[in-house]
TrEMBL record:
Protein name in the entry: EamA family transporter
Entries under InterPro entries matching the protein: EamA_dom (IPR000620), EmrE-like (IPR037185)
PANTHER family: ACYL-MALONYL CONDENSING ENZYME-RELATED, EAMA DOMAIN-CONTAINING PROTEIN
Keywords: Membrane, Transmembrane, Transmembrane helix
Organism: Vogesella margarita
Length: 277
């Protein structure tokens, strides 16, 4: 069964890769509204195990801080910094999962893990930026929010291994409370917009997949797998996202995309193969 420990992580990564394509159908909607609705739908995936949502206050706080805190910081980054650079800095989280693992007592960091994470990050830089980056000489506040978002998701992912054991279904409670907080932010900071039929369908798919089932799969992956391997593997997210956009006709592949893809696959391979293989 050991060889299947990366399967939940791969499935979560695949679901997150669909977010950009689905997001293309909700661009008219404010981000906190999208998050609130999708997370609420995601929480319903575990509603049949409602009794398992009861966890220690510290566990609940970390769960909500991870899911809501990450999205809140990321959306703030997109509002206060160029979207391209903010998204690139957000993709520091797989690298941070690898680098911070020893601080959480989750094994020693080897040169192989560092090389894998850095090669994957270089691939992410290319595929997100398409070879065009323009970081301002002065650091916009939004960049700090993007880095904080990356730290938040990496820390949440690693912290789930150190918390007292809690049921996987409890992630539904994290999603529900995060949904309510996102709804509050929408009410306070965003204009009221009613989704149309196409947008409701996209929101439903988001809630079932990238903002729903993915969190349950990720929780399982981080509890059972090696976080350093999972971190290296996570750079498949921007690669698969680009491929899905290209296949669906919402994006295109170029030479830089193929080079980036090769770097990401090399990094993921180095990071997930056992020592000596």
């Amino acid at each position: 069964m050991k060889k299947f420990t990366l399967l939940p992580a791969l499935l979560a990564i695949l679901l997150w890769s669909s977010l950009a394509a689905l997001g293309a159908f909700t661009q008219r909607l404010p981000p906190f509204l999208v998050t609130a609705i999708a997370l609420f739908i995601g929480s319903l995936l575990a509603i049949h195990r409602l009794k398992e949502w009861r966890v220690a206050p510290r566990t609940l706080l970390i769960g909500v801080a991870g899911i809501f805190g990450y999205h809140c910081l990321l959306f703030t980054a997109f509002r206060t910094a160029p979207a391209l650079e903010a998204n690139l800095l957000n993709y520091l989280w797989p690298l941070l999962i690898v680098v911070l693992s020893p601080l959480f007592g989750l094994g020693k960091l080897t040169g192989r893990h560092i090389v894998a994470a850095m090669v994957g990050f270089c691939g992410a830089v290319l595929i997100v930026s398409k070879g065009k980056l323009d970081f301002a000489a002065s650091l916009p506040l939004g960049y700090l929010f993007a880095i904080a978002a990356a730290f938040t998701w990496a820390s949440y992912s690693l912290a789930t291994r150190k918390l007292p054991p809690f049921p996987n279904a409890a992630v539904g409670g994290f999603c529900l409370l995060s949904s309510l907080l996102a709804a509050l932010c929408h009410w306070l900071f965003e204009p009221a917009i009613v989704p149309n039929n196409q947008e409701w369908l996209a929101l439903l798919l988001m809630g079932i997949g990238p903002l729903g089932a993915s969190f349950f799969l990720w929780d399982k992956a981080m509890k059972e797998g090696d976080p350093k391997q999972i971190g290296a593997l996570s750079y498949l997210t921007p690669l698969l996202s680009t491929l899905i956009l290209a296949i669906s006709g919402l994006g295109e592949l170029n030479t830089i995309s193929w080079i980036a893809g090769a770097l990401i696959l090399v990094g993921a391979t180095i990071g997930t193969l056992g020592r000596g293989r």
